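Appendix B, Record 12. Input sequence as logged:
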Amino acid sequence: MATEFRLPELAEGVTSATVTSLLVAAGDTIEAGQAVVEVETDKAAAEVPSPVGGTVASIQAKEGDTLNVGDLILEVDEAAAPAAQPEPEPEPAPPKKAPPPKARAKPEKPTPKKRPAAKPEVKAPATKPAAKSTSVAAAPSVRRLARELGVDINTVEGSGAGGRVLEPDVRAAANADAAEVPAETVTAPDDTAVEASEGREAMSTIRRRTAERLTEAWQTIPHVTNFDKADITDFEKLRKRAGDQVAAAGGKLTVTAVLVKVICAALKKYPQVNASVDMEQGEVVYKDEYHIGVAADTEHGLLVPVVRNADHLTLTQVCVELTRLAEAARTRKLAIEEMQGGTFTISNLGGIGGTGFTPIVNPPQVAILGVSRARVEPVYTDGRFEPRTMLPLALSYDHRAVDGADGARFLRFVAEALEQPLILMLEE
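Logged structural output:
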């Protein structure tokens, strides 16, 4: 009797997901805990494992389907599970110890002449459709790359362990496909040149959800942005001196990490910035927890992992947590819960450049801090100009909850805390 495998609840509040890749095919033998499908939700991608082992009897979902929690994905025949054990049969490795035959064949000169003819076939598997089953071993990122390049991953010969398809294999297959396109198909008449230069691409789930939320934010939140600069000349000297100590703990002492702690102190002083707006009830809802989201630019789109209860962490712990979250965001290993529940967001574009920007509030939050690249500028102090390192800051806030004066005070507090860390101690 077949066991039904349905889409489980991936995280609190997540009710649906889009199937981005099926990792098995009907007839495949799987083990309990083996990933069988890759799905994408509003903000994250995840591989979903089967709770049982056996043979895949049928697959009811297909790539591109949007499923609700409880929808059927596939059926597994558990009775056929023992059939997976004949795997160890590849143990006839002993015959491989018989290189002697090769040694005997060496004297024969005809064999070396035949070898060159076999070489072209080594490259061919990159696009050979017949030599591959409908299911191959490959990481989600590799499968995604194959989809983006228009390569059928089931036709790619893997060079990794156990035939696993790697990124270079997919790129080689894409190049091979491109080389096969006849030259005449590339040239187009002049009257279609404009059309040929245009293209459409379906939004990923993350991009679509980001677009929806930003549209909602822009249409419903009356944004105001305050600008300020922090003199971080002395701060930078301290940060570089303490960097090795934090690195020894597994983190990186960055401006963003310090800002996470500074923001916690600022939110406690200005609670109206750590809030949300309930227009139906006509209330401002004040939060008593400090979960700081940090926007991360990844090749998959904008992700915002959250440092939870940041006010209870030491600066070193914040650095370690940010390092972990950044790596998870890059490799799409972020759990959905790690991007939920933020009460304030920091977006630091200083590593890219620019002199300033106006970030958009991420609802239901009421404020977001934008950070640009620090620059050495002449600053007039004590009757003379001095070169000082100035950090541009921008605070966008929801004017329904935060008044302009409070927004300006909040941002000045943040700037002064970076300039004079003693302020934080006096506030505690």
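The two ends are 64 Å apart (CA to CA).
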